[in-house]
Design goal:
The structure is a single chain. The chain has 458 residues and is of the alpha+beta class. It has a domain at 4-134 and 418-440: Phosphorylase Kinase, domain 1 (2-Layer Sandwich). It is built from 15 helices and 15 strands. Strand 13 and strand 14 (428-431) form a beta hairpin.
């Protein structure tokens, strides 16, 4: 895998029945179509400020484009345009859902949250212009580390979760122009909605099923989120507030510090474990797991919301304290170097600017030694073993109807979460976030225009 091959472009993605439920949807559920980017015959102007370069994906509700924003004095900026399908522009319910996501995303401005630059209308069709980011989903990063026998180091895993908790704290605390809390709840925190940039920063993405105080009324019976990352109150169809997101983040923290999934198996078994609070402490899995970190994990995973952290900021503080007390060295630069070393372990090129001085001196002292190869051979797992570990990381491909039955709801009461869209963009392996939930319930044709198959959540 070369440098370009490991980079991914992302911004804000939309919902798909399979993505919402932690697996690829079957049984006629709407799907997001993953496709090789389809270069337009020629760049097309879109509105007053954008030029569409290529269509990256198409789903039941929206189309995703890589685009260029240009202005005076030669200013150019790559962005992602998420455009509602023109044929749905007359459906008020679909438009309202699309704009709900835009309203929530547009008020957020934080280093650990994907940025929305613009919300507008072109040719009678609403669109969202979003940040174009080089990076990859946390779930893909973990899988790659398992495949190479070099899983995400504990300090980096904690640092990424600290960044995620900071971002969530900001989202939950956001106030409107009237000074009143917006009461935003993401509702879909999972490794597929946490993007790690190539510079070691974490971004929370995909507000397609988020809830907020100013949101238009939705059916209260609808259950949002991926099953494996639902809070007990979500699984029990109870009231949900920001502490539900904290539980979901606790699940991710548990998984990426242990290298194994917490809730995996039959939907009925997962729901039972969620409702009963059946969570083995990390030290039951790995005896040398740090006690202070286990305390953070288990508090975030308390069955009752009132027993969890009151705010995600509090969780971020305790993660910072753990890193400080344990004297663990991490941070965006070190994480970026780890990502770079992973690429080298897979046979790719290093990013010269990330090679530390100590590495350069060692390479110079070894004359003809293939330094990168020699240093990173140890990252490779045993033949076959690492592939099995990576497969264990993947989510279960479970029928939507089975999940609905386990939760005691009808299949159409399951909100559609984020579907992964994978493609090649500008020479990079791209994951563009942006196709919103298929609110109309129409199934996207996997073999449709430009389609190369159905993309499901990892």
């Amino acid at each position: 895998m070369d440098v370009a091959g490991r980079r991914r472009a992302a911004a804000g993605r939309g919902a798909d029945a399979g993505g919402a439920l932690g697996g690829r949807a079957r049984g006629g559920a709407a799907r997001e179509v993953a496709m090789t980017p389809q270069a337009l015959v020629e760049p097309a102007r879109f509105g007053d400020r954008y030029t569409l370069i290529e269509r990256v994906a198409v789903g039941g509700m929206a189309e995703i484009y890589r685009a260029r924003q240009d202005a005076i004095a030669g200013f150019e900026k790559d962005v992602v345009i998420k455009r509602l399908k023109p044929e749905l522009a007359g459906d008020d319910r679909v438009v309202d859902m699309f704009l709900d996501e835009a309203r929530i995303s547009a008020v957020l401005n934080h280093p650990n949250v994907v940025h929305v630059y613009d919300v507008g209308e072109a040719g009678g069709t609403p669109y969202i212009a979003m940040e174009y980011i080089a990076g990859e989903e946390l779930t893909d990063l973990c899988r790659r580390g398992l495949q190479l026998g070099r899983f995400l180091p504990l300090p980096h895993a904690v640092e990424l979760m600290r960044q995620a908790a900071r971002g969530l704290g900001y989202i939950h605390a956001k106030r409107g122009k009237d000074g009143e809390p917006l009461d935003i709840v993401h509702c879909d925190i999972s490794p597929t909605n946490l993007l790690v940039t190539e510079d070691g920063e974490l971004k929370i993405i995909d507000f397609g099923i988020a809830r907020s105080r100013h949101q238009r009324a939705r059916d209260a019976a609808i259950l949002p989120g991926k099953l494996s990352y639902m809070s007990p109150e979500q699984a029990s169809r109870g009231p949900v507030d920001h502490r539900s997101d904290i539980f979901s983040l606790g699940v991710v923290l548990y998984e990426i510090t242990l290298g194994r999934r917490l809730f995996k198996g039959k939907a009925s078994d997962v729901v039972q474990r969620l409702r009963e609070g059946d969570i083995p402490p990390p030290t039951f899995v790995r005896r040398d797991y740090p006690g202070p970190l286990e305390a953070v994990v288990m508090r975030a995973l308390e069955r009752h919301p009132e027993d969890r952290y009151e705010t995600a900021y509090d969780m971020a503080d305790e993660l910072s304290e753990f890193l400080r007390e344990a004297d663990l060295r991490t941070g965006p630069l070190r994480i970026a170097r780890y990502l770079d070393q992973l690429a080298a372990a897979a046979g790719g090129a290093r990013r010269a600017e990330l090679v530390a001085e100590a590495e350069r001196r060692a390479a110079e002292a070894e004359d003809e030694l293939d330094f990168d190869r020699g240093l990173f051979d140890g990252f490779r797992g045993a033949e076959g073993g690492s592939a099995e570990a990576a497969a264990e990381w993947d989510e279960v491909d479970e029928d939507t109807r089975e999940i609905a039955a386990a939760l005691g709801v009808a299949p159409d009461q399951l909100d559609r979460g984020g579907a992964r869209v994978e493609a090649l963009s500008a020479g990079r392996s791209g994951r563009i976030d942006g196709a919103a939930a298929d609110a109309g319930g129409a199934a996207a044709d996997a073999g449709g225009e430009g389609g190369a198959g159905a993309g499901g959540a990892s």
